[in-house]
Write a structure and sequence with these properties.
41% of the residues lie in helices and 21% in strands. By secondary structure, the protein is of the alpha+beta class. The protein has two domains: 197 residues, Ribosomal Protein S5, domain 2; 173 residues, GHMP kinase, C-terminal domain (Alpha-Beta Plaits, 2-Layer Sandwich), CATH 3.30.70. A hairpin with a 6-residue loop joins β4 and β5. The protein is globular and about 65 Å long. Bound molecules: alpha-D-galactopyranose (GLA). Alpha-D-galactopyranose (GLA) binds next to α5.
């Protein structure tokens, strides 16, 4: 879908359509490598064709006005007062980005922003990285700041960490910045080495299924998992002083040193990270050799580990997973993103997709009491000008 944000923005702000520049940033789906990014590990996300559109124009005053097609609220601000404000809800994301730029650059005018998003919020598909990246990319382009895409990704992560208060890693911002149509991004979150791998699925396709369970307390639980990992790292460093990140712990090293961890919960978290990291490498290898069956198996193991060791799934995601993995034509399925609700991603044979969606929808409704949303997902490009 291409959204005609320029015309819509022009009507809303009573300006000429050609006063606006337009941009798009995708959401992302992570195929495997969950809760590894902030441990310096590997991830394997892909950019969606769904995301956030932005039309932006300069004003004649120092005001900033933000509107969205999805939220009624119009947020009006002064360029000098960009502190976080609960009442500004969604607009805190672009505000945080703007504040980062205002701190280091002089702005000669105020701005009009009009956002149009088509990824569900809080569904684990990175709607927040999408709105942040589209804002950062647009400001960088409009004012010729010449910040690199890598630095834009880090700027967005800083906003998420320090302004919004979620201690997220770098996966989402990199996927949204560097995604490519029909490719997935194999990223080493320690060295930032990255490789785009063709997502050649042949007779199979990706299905995304939203449990429609809002992530609720996800942010505090997310931060809790992060500190459990930090605790695990500190204890392991007493045995292995050269250790920089949990991702440097190989499966062998883990077997030899697991007794160093005093807290069994922390030990479970670390075990997940160590094994999940190895799974990403194996999954990329499987994709490169067209072994989709093995890729699917690794996805299933990943979900089980997120359920049993990392404990970030919950009833809705687990019900969805159980229903999907036994369907004909489904090679693999798992939760994607932070967890605690949100979506699964599955690899399903094209000939079985209709039946897969139909069967799972009915059984999920029966088990959970409300409907999921399931659709075939296409893989698109990273952030761009339109
Ligand atoms: C969220 C965070 C990412 C990553 C995932 C879990 O999407 O924003 O940085 O940690 O959760 O893999």
């Amino acid at each position: 879908m291409t959204v005609n944000v320029k015309e819509q923005a022009a009507a809303l702000f009573s300006q000429e359509a050609n006063a606006f520049l337009t941009y798009f940033a995708p959401g992302r789906v992570n195929l495997i490598g969950e809760h590894t990014d902030y441990n310096g590990g590997y991830v394997f996300p892909a950019a969606l064709t769904k995301g956030t559109y932005l039309a932006i124009s300069k004003r004649n005053d120092q005001q900033v006005v933000m509107k969205s097609a999805q939220f009624d609220q119009t947020v009006s601000l002064d360029l000098q007062s960009l502190d976080y404000d609960d009442a500004h809800d969604w607009a805190n994301y672009p505000k945080g980005i703007l504040r980062e730029f205002v701190t280091n650059h002089a702005f000669d005018t105020g701005l009009n922003f009009y956002f149009h998003g088509n990824i569900p919020n809080g569904a684990g598909l990175s709607s927040s990285a999408s709105i942040c990246l589209v804002t950062a990319y647009a400001l960088n382009d409009l004012f010729h700041f010449k910040v690199s895409k890598t630095d834009l990704a880090f700027l967005c992560q800083r906003v998420e960490n320090n302004y919004i208060g979620v201690n997220s890693g770098i996966m989402d911002q990199f996927a949204v910045a560097f995604g490519k149509e029909d490719h997935a991004l194999f990223l080493n979150c320690e060295t930032l080495e990255k490789e785009l791998i063709p997502l050649t699925l042949g007779a199979y396709q990706l299905v995304i299924s939203n449990t429609n369970k809002r992530r609720g307390l996800a942010d505090s639980k997310y931060n809790e998992r992060r500190s459990e990992c930090d605790k695990g790292l500190k204890e392991l460093q007493q045995e292995i002083p050269t250790l920089q990140n949990l991702s440097d712990v190989t499966i062998d090293l883990w077997k030899k040193n697991r007794s160093a961890l005093t807290d069994p919960t922390v030990a479970k978290r670390v075990e997940h990270v160590v094994q999940e990291n190895a799974r990403v490498v194996a999954a990329v290898q499987a994709l490169k050799t067209n072994d989709l069956e093995h890729f699917g198996k690794l996805m299933i193991e990943s979900h089980e580990s997120l359920r049993d060791l990392y404990e970030v799934t919950g009833n809705e995601l687990d019900t969805m997973f159980d229903l999907q993995k036994k369907e004909a034509g489904c090679l693999g399925t798992r939760m994607t993103g932070a967890g605690f609700g949100g979506c699964t991603v599955s690899i399903v044979h094209k000939d079985h997709t209709d039946q897969f969606i139909d069967n799972v929808t009915k059984a999920y409704e029966k088990a959970i009491g409300w409907s999921p949303e399931m659709y075939v997902s296409n893989i698109g490009d990273g952030v761009k000008s339109l």
